[in-house]
Amino acid sequence: MPHPRRNPGLDALLDLDGLVLVIDPEGGHWVKFVVRRVPVSPDRPHGLGYSLTLHDRSGRRLVGYDNAHPVSSGRRRESAVRRNHRHRLRVIKPYEYKDAATLLADFWREVDAVLEEKGVGR
Predict the structure, then answer these.
(1) Could you tell me if 23 and 32 are in contact, meaning their C-beta atoms sit under 8 angstroms apart?
(2) Where exactly are the structural domains of the chain?
(3) Among 10, 22, 63, 90, which is most exposed with the fewest C-beta within 10 angstroms?
(4) Is the dihedral of CA 57, 59, 87, 51 positive or negative?
C-alpha cells in the first residue's frame, strides 16, 4: 500500500500541540500551541482545530490565531467561512487560512511585530 503524501508544514504544526515556550524569560512572554485534527466540516474545511497564542507575564493574550469560534462583529456572528481569525491585542480580524506552514509563518511574524512594538528583543 502506498504511503500517504507527507506534508512537512502540517506535520510541524501538529507536532507543536501542547507545547508552551517561554520566549522572553525577563519580560515573561510565552507562546502556547493547541493543534488537533478534527473532522472536515464547512467550519473547518482543512480538518484542523488550532489556537496559537502569545501571552504576557499576567497571561493576557497579545496575539492569537485560531478557529475555535466564529468571529463576532457587534451583535451578530459572521459566517463560518470567517471562523479562521487572528487576535492582535484587542482587535480581532478574519484570517485567510492557506496552509499550516503559512499559518506558522504568519503567527511568528505577528509575534515578532508585537514584541518589537513593546521593545522586547527575541
Answers:
(1) no
(2) 8-117
(3) 90
(4) positive
Widest Cα–Cα separation across the chain: 53
Task: For residue 72, list its beta bridge partners.
Answer: 77
With vertex at residue 103, the alpha carbon angle to CA 35 and CA 93, rounded to the nearest 5 degrees, is 100
The CB-side HSE value for 110 (13 A sphere, CA atoms) comes to 23
**pLDDT digits 0-9 by tens, 81-107:** 457 888 988 888 889 899 999 999 999
The set of cell numbers assigned to 89 is 491585542
Q: Is the pTM of this model over 0.85?
A: no
C-alpha cell at 111: 509575534
Separation of alpha carbons 37 and 114, rounded Å: 29
d(CA 14, CA 48): 9
